[in-house]
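Issue: copy button drops trailing tokens. Both records pasted manually instead:
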Amino acid sequence: MTTYSAVRTTGIYCRPGCGAKPLAENVQTFELAAAAEAAGFRACLRCRPYRVAGTVADEAPELVCRAVQLIIAGVLDAAGEAALAARIGVSARHLRRMFHEHLGVTPDQFARSRRAHFARRLLDDSELGIAEVAFASGFGSLRQFNRAMREIFRASPKELRERRRKTDRLTADGGLVLRLPYTPPYDWEAMSGFLAAQAIPGVESVEGGVYRRTITLDGAPGLLEIGPGGPDHLLLHAHLPFWEGVMHVVDRAACLVGLETDLSTARQFLSGDPELAPRLAARPGLRIPGAWGPFEVAVQAVLRNPPETLQEPDEVRREPRHRTEVLAVLGAGDRELSPWRDEPGGLGSAGEQAGHARDVLGERESAGGALPGSGAAGAVVGEQADAHGVKRGRGEVDEVRRGRGAVGEADEVRRRGGDVDVVRGGRGAVGEGDQVRRGGGGADEVLRKIVEVYGIAVPGLGFGLTHLFPAPEALTGVEPVAALAREVADGNIVLDCGRPEELARRLEQVAGVSRRAAQLVVMRLGGRDAWPLDGDAGHLSPWRSLAAFHHLVDDYAKVS
């Protein structure tokens, strides 16, 4: 955990290792940079504490840690502290009291500090204009941006950019390159190995130690690349259709690779267990991975961990809605992929994002063009539906017309060697008995077919990336994940860890979701006490997630 030292006589705070040597009686310590700023101190110009990982210590109460994760996810961008408190089941007053007691700041002050620090890093590292930096960092206006930067850094954004160092600037062949700071040690090899083993075909890949995935922002596709950088940071290459709100893209990428959590207290606690102690010593930098798209993580967990009473699914069934020539049109990007998601005042619900993407597709297809805004990623969504028109409305994706030549009622859509064949078993429209058969390959093959059939195609990316993961609305008729998709699409289950115990209970009540799958989802979404293994391991509570992940990583290493 990073501890910041503030000097009362100068009004400056520093990170550990700074060359300044003030008198001990003049020094006050803070666990967060935001707390030092709230107390009236400014960042040191020499050690630049805004450039290090500002994680919250895991010794803070779980309620506070859950609230922090929701702030990182952008909850306070579109709502106030009352909405944040409601997500974790407490009053706004109690939440503010807990933040003051354990972090030294209010939730709003914590969020503002994060935005300002991210903006300062963009000013240092990138060539984005001042206005682009403001909106990329989540500020609502230039006036708000200038005021916050002057209050926190005592200088205007223009003055701050003029102070940057030559070594700060990052360049890349297209896209935006940013550092993802962390406090060593950090085991990227183990993290990338886990992500490779769990990669969703067509959506994620790991090659040459670099993790890549497709994403969608407000209906437009993009590409992220995360790989090793320096001794205290990873490098993120973001190829996005626009830069507005990119702070949330970076935050979610950091959460995905486990950089937003401090596990020092958990490691100290678990090191007392004789079985875990050697594992912890062998992998001191192991972090628990998060999730870019909570829904895709849930689908993956269900398919890879079916209930014991069920056999592994041999086929993906649904009530088809389209001709085989347009298999990719129903997916609109993961409900959880947009950094603004479904918060009040955000940039669109999942259904609205889906409708926007399809509206654009229809317009561009008729004009013979490509999806606008995706040039930065080299992603062109093409060869889409000529048989469908889709309208959008309050989270729903509705079919409004069909072309001629629909597949017959008893027809079977079958994949062979990557191609789609229609095996005619009748005539007319496709009925409930249709299925996309799996030719082998287990859960990976089922995931691949789900992505290919219901996700939007994004050609030209390479590295095995071909599609965006489909939204819950597109999978409400696809077994064995139909029940889960319906619950998420209807808003009955919210996939975040505001209340991890309740989330696990709700997931286990869904048909087709095993206890192991539910616990894996909770673990990936930030729950600190999930246990997706056999037995109970109550003696490891409340840090069972880290213990379980050590077991999982070792199991993957043995298999590989």
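Record 2 (pasted manually too):
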Amino acid sequence: MSLSLTLAKKSTLNAINDPKNKVIALSGAWGTGKTHLWKSIAAEVKIDYIDITAFGVISTEDLKSRIIQSHLNGKLRGSGTVAQEFTHFFSGIAKKLTGSDIIKTTLLGLPLITRKKLVLIDDIERKHKNYDTDEFLGFINEFSEKYETKFLLILNSDKIADSATWQQLREKVIDFEITLSTSADEAFKIVCPELSSDYLRYVKETAIKLDISNIRILRKIISTITNLLEGHFDLAPEISRLFIPYTVLMIAAHYRGVGNGITLEYIEKFSPGNSKEFTQQEMEWNKSLAMVDFRRDQFFPLISEHLKSGVSNQDEIAAFLLPHKKNIERNRRATKTSEFIKDCLWHPHLPDAYFKNYYNAMEDHIYEVDPQDITTIFNILKDENEHHLADVILQKWITFANADTNIFKRLSNGDPSAIHPLINQLKLNILKPAEAKPTLLTALDVYNYIDGGPHQNIILASTKDDYAYLISTLKRDTLKDFISTYIRHFQTNSPTSIFISNRMFETYTYLSSTNPRIARMISREFAARKLEQKTRAG
């Protein structure tokens, strides 16, 4: 019968305590927790036991010696009369015999130890290849029948080389067999009983999703991730869920621990946009990649490097995590401000220190609050007779704003009437920069937010050659934004927007012969919006 860990524990214990069962087998795949199961029920076994491993055992004599050695090392529970008799027997012959004679004579006393006892033999599939399986089965049969020895045989069913002989074992020797089939959830609870960190919750969630139930593989996964995240165990769940799932898959694949056999080499070469035809096996592997939302970010090569070399580049790991941490903190502060405003407007009872506590928490980050919200907070504090605090918060925001070279972007949205006059006044300063004369790109950028002033003069004085040169200097993302700006002006009816769109249409016509690739990009974007480029009447 194939059982979960919980049911297998109960079944194995009942089988051992049942006097009718002389030979019991506990089988299952590698890493399913067979040894763990035994240790968890050992205290409840009603008879004395000896436990040994068959790893490397080369003969029946070697096996018997291990049983005796285990007894002499105190692994036999209790100190019953039979055990005392054997110890007396062994002490007596040791005085009369030497060398191999001692060993052979000592082995004759083995039945005194094992009679009516349980002998647990683990790792049977790892016996030496020269130790004949039939000879091993003969030993089990002899001692179980003649000396009332009960055996619990633990073996990995997927590692047995001589399957035909072991089938005979099942048919002729074994009285009761339990096949352990541990679930991923059960296995993870064995390896990690307590989820002390958020990242461990995502490790468990992914292991269950990928059906990783091998205890040894799970230990390697947790150990590897712990090494990678040294000093970062307090990661927010929003960060952990980004990379922990695919990290679990990569580690499991490296140790050949995923059921469908996906390899680390395949993951490293995988490209989400690849149009190749995949084999049936590769399609199964791709499902695993989809399960973990696989991505090639900066953390991906750090995992590969660690798995192959054992080296954890903590500086690069910290550099990868830092912007994510800052983004999470920024989002939490935004939520704090939103909740603060709601509380101030609608909460019937607020503690006296509530307003001051908000400022203390936000003092160094007050500029993250947008102009309209900072105005709302200012007005709220005035209504609450917190005049000094209102002035402090507003002046703090303005101090940050004066040091911001891109302040116009902060002033682009919102109704000016809903923004404090001192903040609105900052717009005038933008039009009088102390730096060098603004470029056409800067003028177009600023004009998206503020009309009039020297930036408009630059726009009106620019020719198609100026636009063509500007376009030739732009990189991918900047070019994309620039074309989007052109389209916005094309859809706006202000005199300056009409001038800009007409100048750009001249430039587009010029580029059709000098730089057809960019001209096609512009045509593509207009077509996507179902717009037709043309000269517009001013």
